[in-house]
Specification:
mainly alpha, Sufe protein. Chain: A, two-stranded antiparallel ribbon
Length: 139
């Protein structure tokens, strides 16, 4: 499934909820469903700088694709991490680098986050794209 197909799925899922309290509840649910983050990856170099809460994102290359793992100590942010992993994990470095993450605007996520959380979202996306660039350079 392409990055855009996954984004379209997410937009449809969020369209089922009428207000942002329900959408926040869904984000929390997504975060709770996230695979447990390995303790050995809870390293300072995996912490995303610029986030209000602590966010860890780790990347590995499996075959041609980048696979992400992540976690946060904040429940809503953990849901955002889960969304980003769902969209970007399992794709090639080029796909990740060149994608337009339009689902963020379409579901209204950015305007329903505090400015510091919005900055954190940007920092997470930037770091995930940097991981993809690093794997591309190593090819």
């Amino acid at each position: 499934m392409s990055i855009n197909d996954i984004q379209d799925q997410i937009v449809e899922e969020f369209a089922d909820y009428d207000d942002w309290m329900d959408k926040y509840s869904y984000l929390i649910e997504l975060g709770n469903d996230l695979e447990p983050y390995p303790e050995e990856h809870r390293l300072p170099e995996n912490i995303i700088q610029g986030c209000q809460s602590t966010v860890w994102i780790h990347a590995d290359k499996v075959g041609e694709n980048v696979v992400f793992e992540g976690d946060s100590d904040a429940i809503i942010v953990k849901g955002i991490v889960a969304l980003l992993i769902r969209v970007l994990s399992g794709h090639t470095p080029d796909e990740i680098i060149n994608c337009d993450l339009y689902f963020i605007d379409k579901i209204g996520l950015k305007e329903n986050l505090t400015p510091t959380r919005s900055n954190g979202l940007i920092a997470m996306i930037k770091q995930m794209k940097i991981y993809a660039m690093a794997f591309k350079v190593k090819q």
